[in-house]
Write a structure and sequence with these properties.
- Helices cover 1% and strands 47% of the residues.
- The chain is mainly β and 369 residues long.
- The strands form seven sheets. The protein has a five-stranded antiparallel sheet, with no helix packed on it. A four-stranded antiparallel sheet has the order 3-4-5-6, with no helix packed on it. It has a four-stranded antiparallel sheet with strand order 7-8-9-10, with no helix packed on it.
- A hairpin with a 7-residue loop joins strand 9 and strand 10 (118-119).
- It is globular, with a radius of gyration of 20 Å.
Amino acid sequence: MQKLVMQAVSIIALVLLNAGCNDTNTLDVSPEQEVIFNYTSLDGVTVNQFAKAGTGILAATSHGVYTREAQDWHALDATSDWHVYAVVEVSAGHYIASIEFRDNFYMAESLDFGESWDYVGSNFGEADGGGIIIIQSVELSEKMHALAYDNETGMLFATGFNVLASSNDLGRTWHILSGEWQGFAKGFSALTIDPHGAAVWIGGQNAIEQSQLYSYDLSSQVLSEHSSMTDMNGEPGTVKNIRFHPDEPSTIYASGEPGIIFSDDAGKTWRDFYLNEDSKFYFGLLIDSIEPSRMYTAGWVKAFEQPQPFLLEISTNGGDTWSVHEFESTEAIYGGVWSMYAEHTEAQSNLYFGLFKGGIMSVSIDKSN
């Protein structure tokens, strides 16, 4: 059963954190914007990741893959028993997903827009046997934490616990780019190909809860380690998402625990962008591709069993100041944000937030004011 609530609220003039590397908090006095929330509970699923598919959107969730049609989200019935960690479209209607089913990990493939799926035999997580790869089972030896597909080269990338691997045959055979199979770590959940396709960026957390951030140069085949949250504050941290500025590819944002950091020199040095002392998680940053000074984010308090409000944070000046919009509901919801995705036009931004145990919060922002 889906629960749909629509409501508009005005800006709450608050600044929760230092932002944009300012030394002091400042009040956002930008004009009010129309913010419309459209909440779909999806019976309490957790949304791990969004992916573009043609003109639509896919959502990888704890109860299968969902697609967005008109204003509604619909489950692909063939996937409803799966915990889907990641999904990508490699061509029209051709999807590849990383899943867990009955305590086993698989890679699954659909050739018909998700109506039917097959498990794919893959050597992901296995030694290559001296160059001879023998695939004996469709069960993976290791969980695929994240997937990314390069449309230009046809290369598929995936991360494991402590490994970055690539495949040029849509996941049948994998070759390690960095790390090792069955590594001792929490896993690389962030995976992004840079805008020029020259490098792959990965991030996550090691075995002692320290954040990790790396880039792998596809030409030189060199892995570079970068400073991240733990290096800045000495506290536990994780990198959940990596995003590039749409107009300035040398500016990179890494988000996770306890907030967001950035580099404006292609990753050579990193600074505080939106960190916080409360270790609140910010698992993504949405940047308006048409007006990059507009940015959106939402956080997650580490409370696995308790509901929490959904708080949308907006900056109209590149992160210097932030304002907060709260979704007002008569019932407590699980409003902690686990993933996010955006589509932008000249007049409007449509934002999608995947919640932990809370379904999907869709937000429309009218930019005409």
